[in-house]
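Researcher: Go.
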Amino acid sequence: MSDEVGVNIWLYEPNKGAAIFFAVAFLTSGVVHFWQAVHYHSWRLTGLYVLCSLLFAGGFIARALGAFDTGNIIKYIISIVLTYAAPPLYELANYYVLGRILYFVPHCSPIHPGRVLTTFAAISFVIEALNGTGAAYVANRTLPESLQDVGHVLFKVALILQLVVIVSFMALATTFYTRCRKNGINHNKVNQPLLTLYLSTGLIFARTVYRTVEYFEMETVDYFAEGFDLGRQNPIVRFEWYFYVFEAALMLVNSALINARHPRRWLPQSTKLYLAKDGITEVMGPGYKEDRGFVATLLDPFDVYGMVKGRDKSTRFWDEDGHELQTAPGTSGKGMRQSV
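Model: Structure:
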């Protein structure tokens, strides 16, 4: 089968210079992420940021090559698949970071920190599978119509699921922050990485909203149809600048944000080091233990069954470190902590 389809599959003339610029920019950010992972010994925590940069760089390299060969469907498919695959992995990396923040302040965590990863990572895996399969089926217009229809459905589910997961993630982070404030925790090692997560998640959410709107418009486009008129299509489909503003630029800003505000600047390397209930003292403790199996953790991330049975009380090691919240006479104890 030929790689050529005989038409400009991009709908517009792809900007060669912009594609090259973003390929170089993401490669540069990826190199910085690599150095930071080595410098901070944070491969488990931030290694995914390196992969995301490489995926975007590969996607823009394929886009640049496709700009010189607008009828080549293989280059088009590679570009689409790689650029769609990276943002969910940015989200997954953010889940790692939130989990590490929860390990640092365990007494304010609404969920076992390790369950943040198992729960959201499982959902991210599903999203990645749907994204990859859907992108490949939709981008390849030479496939049978039935497979293209399957790709459309997979894409819709993946995009909507991404939005739902982002909102759920933000709700979890906000619940944790609210608990910290209620318990007098106002610590720089909590506030700064949380701020980075809010900014990063906001950028990813804006990008996902754009992609969802674009896709629902793109689904109706059939440039192989007789009498197809590009001028009648929605501007979000017709003009490339939407992609560069709401996908490329937002995700490059996100990558640079993590470079500038790397979470290991504030978070400890060990998950056993935690902030005591006094909001000041950092204690090396036994760390969280997970006695349940993977399936039980996945299906019941909040361990509702354990709370009913009183099992969670046995893991509250922070109640035994002797560092309680100190209150001045006539105060409630709230708002008494200073940033460290």
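Model: The radius of gyration is 23 Å.
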